[in-house]
Amino acid sequence: MDTTKYETVIGMEIHAELRTASKMFCGCAVVDTTVTEPNTAICPVCTGLPGAMPVVNQHAMEQAMRVGLALNCQINAFTSFARKNYFYPDLPKGYQISQFDHPLATHGWVEVLTDTGETVRVGIHRAHMEEDTAKSYHVPAHEDGVDAYTLIDFNRSGVPLLEIVSEPDMHSVAAAHAYAMKIREILRYLGVNSGDMEKGVLRFEANISIRPRGSKMLGTRTEVKNLNSFRALVRAAEYEITRQIQAVEAGQTIVQETLGWDENRGVTYSQRSKEQAHDYRYFPEPDLPPLLIDEAWVEEVRATLPELPDAKYARFVEAYGLPENDARILVSERALAGYFERAAAAYAGRPVEVSKLIVGQLAYLMNQEGIGIDEVRVAPEAIAKLVTLLDAGTLNQTGAKDVLTAMFETGKSPEEIVKEKGLIQISDEDQLAHFADEVLDENPDQVAAYLDGKESVLQWFMGQVMRKTRGRAKPQTVLQQLREKLETRR
């Protein structure tokens, strides 16, 4: 199979539940469906009872407008709702209130950086509002003869759902992955979505096709539905690209269809033929008038936007002098970026010294515990104090890591821990000279090896002095002492 003959084309649809107190078209509370008793946050509107009348949630529309603006979209002055008709057990009305001819936002773009270092500009075709469906729970057949059956929980039915539709501008799985991560990052920065994919509040759908390299014609696409993790997105896209290339190489025709993803087997499978717009029999929602959005309202919403990740990244590199990788890590989470800025403001030296500790040891400890920056017991100001102790020579790098670990575990200040553990750095030259002499006297063979030209032994001596001082020796002074004493033994 010669994959170099083909170019991949990927477009994505991302469905994001919006963080609002109530549902899209009724006053029912938006609840966490993973922990809330089924069918307790429901009413005649979100269960599709006859005669129930929907009312648009203004806050949801404003949240959607914020996303559109963050994605450089045009917010359309005229937007309206439509009925998208299809039958499925978790769709109580037999149709979904969505947007078709007149979406809220169009013609946007976002730039993403892939893990291969490629910058890709992805167009945003549209972002439109709709309501989420209910949730089906399939119960398998019991051994006692009870047939399989399905339960429906309507708590999710009617939750505000924003669908973001990209242009087919991605030509690698890496680009699709970076795009999905970027959209999640922006949604979290705006505070409109938690990004918790395990709870189903953010779902990806990938439209994938291939074409002969150099061709401008789009090939027949397949849509892989309801990918609920980045891992699933990457694996499903890789599998589907390979499947399509193998099919074309074998002389087969790609069929436009909707596919599911079997995570356990690692394969896509056919769900149904791919619907076109006419299959849904869209028509204007008769119970909801069009919305007219004037420029003043748009500007009012624009004023609520925070500094977004790309702008924050540029500022961190420019104003704080951070390495690009450190800046990317820090701006990946709005709370983490804020934590860094508080620590940098409390520190009198170069902010890069603060970032080293945060993206290094602190990030390592957080990953080990599986917690976010909001759960860390170490105050940003305590990080600044710890770096100040490093600058003063009170601690060396090893001691600082030990202190930060203890701070992370106990919430105590760096000064308290240094005092309790006796971790003050030894910088007295006479004291360190004594330790250096001890190490050299105890290891004559290694001394001879160094004098014969094996300079790497110097680092081994360094480690022995550090062991004797329990990591408290000032490295630069130890290195100088060892070199001088070894030269006197030639």
Could you write a compact summary of the structure shown?
With 490 residues, the chain is of the alpha+beta class. Helix content is 39%, strand content 20%. It folds into 3 domains: 299 residues, no CATH class; 113 residues, no CATH class; 59 residues, Arc Repressor Mutant, subunit A.
Question: What this model shows, in words?
Answer:
The protein has 3 domains: 3-301, no CATH class; 309-421, no CATH class; 429-487, Arc Repressor Mutant, subunit A. With 490 residues, the chain is an alpha+beta fold. It is built from 15 helices and 16 strands. Helix 2 (173-190) packs antiparallel against helix 3, helix 8 (351-369) packs across helix 10 (397-410) and helix 14 (457-468) crosses helix 15. Strands 2-6-7-10-1-11-12-13-14 form a 9-stranded mixed sheet. It has a 3-stranded antiparallel sheet with strand order 5-4-15, with no helix packed on it. The chain has a two-stranded antiparallel ribbon with strand order 3-16. Helices cover 39% and strands 20% of the residues. It is elongated. Helix 3 links the parallel strand 12 and strand 13.
Keywords:
alpha+beta; three-stranded antiparallel beta sheet; nine-stranded mixed beta sheet; elongated; 16 strands; Arc Repressor Mutant, subunit A; single chain; 20% strand; 39% helix; 490 residues
